Amino acid sequence: MKGQKTCAKCQTKAGPRTKICKKCGEHFVFKFRGRKVKTNELKDWKSLKRGDVVKSIQGYGPYWINEDGERESLGYYGLFKVRYVEKDGIGAYPYGAKQRHGGFHFLYMGKEKESITGGISRSHKLELVKQ
Fold it and tell me: Do both 18 and 62 map to the same domain?
C-alpha cells in the first residue's frame, strides 16, 4: 500500500511519518533531501534584468592561495536578486530567508586575472532561478 513503510526488524507496517516502530521500538531512517531550488543554466549573464533571481554556485568566483597552498574562496554563493548589470559583473542583493551574508554584493563575471592584493579574480558560475 502506498504511503506506508515496513519495519526492518519486525516487519510491522507503519505510517509514512512514523519515526519509531510501535511494536519493537526500532527507529526508522529518514533521508535528508535538503533545500532544492529549480534553476536553468544561464547562457548569457549580460541579458539579466533588474529583479531577476540568480543562484551563484559555491566553489566558483574570486579566490586567493593561503600560506599552506590551499585555495580560499572570496566569492559569494547562494541566491541573489539582480540590481544592475555592468561590463564585468552584476550588482545584487542576497535573496531569500537563508541568506546570512547581507548587504550589497558585486558578482564578478569578467575574465580571470590576478588582482592588486594577490588574489585571483575569476567569474562566478550562475544559474537562473525559475520563477
Answer: no
* Residue 121, amino acid: S
| pTM for this entry | 0.65
Would residue 3 be called left, alpha or beta, if left means φ above 0 and alpha means ψ between -120 and 50 degrees?
Answer: left
The backbone torsions φ and ψ at residue 38, rounded to the nearest 5 degrees and listed phi first, read: -75, 125
43-55 pLDDT tens trace: 899 999 999 999 9
Whether residue 70 is found in the same domain as residue 113: yes
3-state SS record for 48-107: CCCCCEEEECCCCCCEEECCCCCEEECCCCEEEEEEEEECCEEEEEECCCCCCCCCCEEE
Residue-number span of the structural domain to which 1 is assigned: 1-30
